[in-house]
Amino acid sequence: xxxxxxxxxxxxxxxxxxxxxxxxxxxxxxxxxxxxxxxxxxxxxxxxxxxxxxxxxxxxxxxxxxxxxxxxxxxxxxxxxxxxxxxxxxxxxxxxxxxxxxxxxxxxxxxxxxxxxxxxxxxxxxxxxxxxxxxxxxxxxxxxxxxxxxxxxxxxxxxxxxxxxxxxxxxxxxxxxxxxxxxxxxxxxxxxxxxxxxxxxxxxxxxxxxxxxxxxxxxxxxxxxxxxxxxxxxxxxxxxxxxxxxxxxxxxxxxxxxxxxxxxxxxxxxxxxxxxxxxxxx
Length: 282
Known about the structure:
- The structure is a single chain.
- By secondary structure, the protein is of the alpha/beta class.
- The chain has a single domain, classed as Vaccinia Virus protein VP39 (Rossmann fold, 3-Layer(aba) Sandwich).
- The chain is built from ten helices and seven strands.
- The protein has helices spanning about 10-25, 35-50, 55-75, 95, 110-120, 140-150, 170-180, 195-210, 240-245, 255-260; strands spanning about 80-85, 105-110, 130-135, 155-160, 185-195, 235-240, 275-280.
- It has a seven-stranded mixed sheet with strand order 3-2-1-4-5-7-6.
- The termini are far apart.
- The mean pLDDT is about 90.
């Protein structure tokens, strides 16, 4: 291959699908995504082969597992009637999770990636009502119009931004958070964040892959989940990816002792940390 392995952000989505496929192949899989291998495609499998250094698959496995559990709990216990999946990428959750048929799931992403996903999943049937919206979320007027439309047709919506915020500037994250909070029916928000320390480590180890896609690692709030408090959101749960991976027995040997140590759920500073946060609109 003569062109960059990671040409754009859609190739990053293929790369992450590889890790979901690898987890699915395990006899003790924490989750199963029967569509991940096809969604990754040949190009997706080239990216992890080109990476050097330690295996990072455990973090993506933990993130997927934790998000799956949060989504299932919100739908079952919080009365969620719509899931709004921003920058959905190659996520196949509306096909692989046991969701109520009446639930509305809205995938939002760029046209190319949704077109590709639609072709790969053409023979599959979602478990709930699925809508795909082709939209560049950096267009604030367009996304606010979409949020208003979705907000009017929902009473309790759950927003997901998986693997998205790290590619945005802090100002853009704050602006997005405020836009979401303006919708009364957008009651919960699932997101993942990392500490400044982990962002620096990721940039050192995998930054070239991200830069090749035109998406360097940016957002890593020093204050942790508290970053979103001024935008109309409060944190109601935080799950460490390190500890989740330990429970799943996916951690490399050298990290197992570290995962046994207590860790705060707030600001992490220079400490390498990543977690999934469940926020509630205030």
